[in-house]
Specification:
- There is one protein chain.
- With 262 residues, the protein is of the alpha/beta class.
- Helix content is 40%, strand content 22%.
- Helix 9 links the parallel strand 11 and strand 12.
- Helix 5 packs antiparallel against helix 6 and helix 7 runs parallel beside helix 8.
- The model has no long low-confidence stretch (mean pLDDT 93).
- The protein binds magnesium ion.
- The site of magnesium ion (MG) has 7 residues, from loops.
Amino acid sequence: MERENSPNERLAAWKRDPGSSAILTDIDGTLAPIVPTPDMSEVPADLKEILGRLSGEYLLVAGISGRKSEDARKLIGLEDIVYFGNHGFEILRDGEVEMIPEAQPYLEKIQELESHAREELEPQGAFIEEKGITASIHFRNVSKEIGGRCVEFVKAEGERLGLRITVGRGVVEARPPIQADKGSATRRLVREYGPKRAMFLGDDTTDLDAFRALEGLRDEGVLEEILRIGVKSDEGPPEIASEADIVVDGVEGVGEILEALL
Ligand SMILES: [Mg+2]
């Protein structure tokens, strides 16, 4: 039934009361069009301008990303926005990076894994990306055999050090064994800033954690109103559209929603 209201009607309460409203958004695929390699990503200038104005009016504007929070800031390029990066492990605001407290005890262990990986795997052609509280060991450019060795090595180190290891395409990642994702990031920001209403805009599987966190916060009575804005794409999961309150087409559609919030 709710879905029958037009987007503009649904945004009315937000515009009336921006001081009690939070805008949370994914970055890649939502504010920045997907490009062949992540370092080519860019947030369009008109979107940056709108985000800058929104951050002046609204209680909170936050970018939530799997990237390092510093990289997230570089992409959007605005100082007034809060950046929650590194899969929910770190927040960057007012120029300071802050690690979530539960993750802090694991920082030394991540560093130990990185230094062993540098000694053992770098000479074989792997690239060790130090991301602070998480580490990514890239093996896209080495043979399959060496790639397999990278995965085995990092898994064994992870087990020894008590870290969570995940294997992706050409990359094996180490992180603290605690719950941190876009859902926990959303909950943390809502708890801290105390908005009456919060929205999340996203295009991919990891964004569904944020959608579900908003739903939980509404059911618990923490939030009066929520909006899940799904950015439809060919590669994204179907749940992005089915779980969203409003579905938009690509970064352009996101721009229209953000502009309507001004
Ligand atoms: Mg995305």
